[in-house]
Amino acid sequence: MFLRTRKTFNALFENLPTSEKILHLTVVIWVSLQIISSYFMHVHSTTLWADINLMSQFHVYSGLLLFVITSIFFMKILNRRKAKDIYPWLYKDFDGIKQDSKTLMAFRLPTSRPGGLAATVEGLGCIALMIALLTGIVWYVTVGNGVLSPVLLKTHKVSVGLIEAYFYGHAFFGFLHLFQRLRSKE
């Protein structure tokens, strides 16, 4: 059973270059650590950097490094795919999204394809993660500024909430695809 599950899991990523698989796994693990570490943070809009606990410092510095890894991952995705593949709505091309939505409404999972729902969600996830990281970086740079810091911290927390919802949804649909492939091979 384990071997079959592993083969099926690998099949989900068979079309990705090895470097992208490694970056994807790295980002997943790193985002997981960021989510976990955020539960142990006690940073408020009036907290001074000198008063930030060790876990909060880990979260901030880890987020700075995650920005670098995510930027590389995002560039790899854009080098492999066209912007129109993951952002079809920017080109007013909603055909793939409409077709995939109809497939979902029939309680079936659509296959991943350029301009489709999965590709669009991937593109939105990249944007959401970059927004969460950039708002964190801007907060870090302005943490001593009493006027901007509270607004930036709140903006960061909202954007992190969105990426966290995306993270769980992405994992959920990934597991649905895994189970669908496992079931179809029985």
CATH topology descriptor = Fumarate Reductase Cytochrome B subunit
Q: Write down the overall mean pLDDT.
A: 87
User: What ranges have pLDDT less than 50 throughout 5 or more consecutive residues?
Assistant: none
Kindly name the structural category.
mainly alpha
> What multimeric state do the chains show?
single chain
CATH class: Mainly Alpha
**Between the first and last Cα atoms, what is the distance in angstroms?**
11 Å
Share of β-strand residues: under 5%
Strand tally, please? 0
Integer tally of domains? 1
Write a brief caption for the model:
This protein has helices at residues 2-12, 18-38, 54-80, 83-86, 95-105, 117-141, 148-184. The chain has 186 residues and is mostly helical.
